[in-house]
Design a protein that fits this description.
Layout (H helix, E strand, L loop, with lengths): L1 E3 L6 E4 L5 E3 L6 E3 H23 L1
Antiparallel strand pairs: 1-2, 2-3, 3-4
The structure holds zinc ion.
Zinc ion (ZN) binds next to loops.
Length: 55
């Protein structure tokens, strides 16, 4: 299954059994659990950046 890589925003591969995420473009390689936490962390940072930008 294709998902968006949290690092480079290119298509990354999620294994069919949801066990790992791999990105061939930036060599991202982590478990799905780590990926979910990583994306949540990145999204919070991203929203913070946008909020700062609006000030
Ligand atoms: Zn990537």
């Amino acid at each position: 299954m294709k998902i968006v890589c949290p690092d480079c925003r290119k298509p990354a591969e999620l294994s069919d059994d949801f066990s790992f995420v791999k990105c061939q473009f930036c060599k991202l390689d982590m478990t799905y659990g780590e990926y979910v936490k990583y994306v949540a962390y990145r999204d919070v940072r991203y929203r913070d950046i946008l909020n700062d930008y609006k000030k």
